[in-house]
Amino acid sequence: MPPKNLVLKIDRSIHLKILHEDDQVLAVAKPFGVLAHPSPGFWEKGTIAHAVVDRMPAEMLEERGNHNEWDSFIPRCIVHRLDAGTTGVMIMAKSIRSESHLAQQFRAADFMYHAPLGKKVYVSLLLGDPGGAPQRRDITVMQSIGRHPKNGRLWAVVPDGKQAKTVIRVHAFSKKYSLSLVTAELFTGRTHQIRVHCSHLEAPVANDNLYAPASKNKAFQQSLELTLPRGRQLLHAWALDLDHPTRERGTLRLRAPLPEDMASIVKKVWPSLALDPASWPGMPARLQSDAAPTGCASPQIVQSEPQLTPLQMRWLEWWESSEEGQRWTRERDLWEEQQPKRPKSHSRRLQSSALTEGRDDQRLPSA
What we know:
By secondary structure, this protein is α+β, with helices and mostly antiparallel strands. It has a single domain (16-356), classed as Pseudouridine synthase. It has helices spanning 48-51, 96-108, 193-200, 214-224, 260-269, 310-321, 323-338, 347-356; strands at 16-21, 25-30, 87-93, 120-127, 138-142, 145-147, 155-157, 165-174, 179-186, 235-243, 251-255, 300-302.
C-alpha cells in the first residue's frame, strides 16, 4: 500500500528529454530503468512522476481514483505507461480535461481492433526473422493474449485471452547476426503485447530476459561484442500520434529519437542505414518525415537520471521468478477481478481503464 497521504516531491536526478509541452500536455522521452509512477521501493523518488512534479498542477499530482492497484500510487497526470526496461515516448496530462481526453483515446484503441492504422509505433531489434521462411516483411499478428498457463508471471498467446493486434514491419535483416530491425505498430494495448507476439513468431525481442532464451541473448551480445544491462529489452516507443485535447490544435505527432544503445547497434550492423526510423525502407507514407512531427526539433533537457540500479533490477527479476512472487501476483490478479466495476459510461471508469486494461507495462512486486 502507498504511504498514507503521500505527496510527490521533485526528483532532479532523472534526465528527461522534453518532446512537447503546452498548457494541456507534457510529452517526454523515457529513459531505460525508470518507472512511470511510485510503487514499492520507489515511493519517494525514482519515477517519471517524481521528475515532472515542478511541471504539473497540484491537482494532477493527486492519486487517480479507482485504479484498482493497491500496490501503486498513480497520479492523475499518468495516462499510460511503459516498462522500466523500455524507452521512448510518454505523454502526460496537465489538466483534468486533458486527462479525460487522453485516457479515452488510449481506451478507444481497444475498440478499434480493425482500425486502418494504429497510434503507437515501437522500434525493436529481434533475434531471428519474424517473417519466417517466406521472409515476409509485413506481418499482421492477430492473436489473443492472456496469462501464461504454466508461469503466472508471464503472458502468452492463449485462445481465451483478450484480443490483440500488432503489425510488424521488417526494415532490415542481417544474416550475419541473425538480427531483424523492425517497427511494431499497436492496434490494442495488452501487457507485454509486442514482446509476446514477437516471441510467438519465434523472433523474440533482443535481450528480453522474460521472453527470449538466455542462450540466445548471450550469443547476441557476444556476436556484437557488447554488454547490455539486465532488464533492458531492446524496445523503444518511437512514435505516438494523438488528437490534442484542444481539438483546434490538431494532431500531436510525437517522435522519440533512438536511444544510444539501439542507435549504436543499428550503426554497427547496418552502417548505411539512417538513424531516423521515418526514412527506413518499407515505412508507410503516413509515418515518413515529409512533415516535421512534434518532438523532432532539438529537445529540451530537464535535469535528472536515476535508473534502477543493477541490484534493484536483479531483485525485481528474482521476485518475479520466485514462488512467493508468482503467488503474490496471482492473489493480486484475483483481488482485482473481484473489485466492483463502475459503469463504462462513468468518467472515472474511462480514466482508469486506460491503465488497467490497455496497459503497456509490467506489474511490479511489493517490497
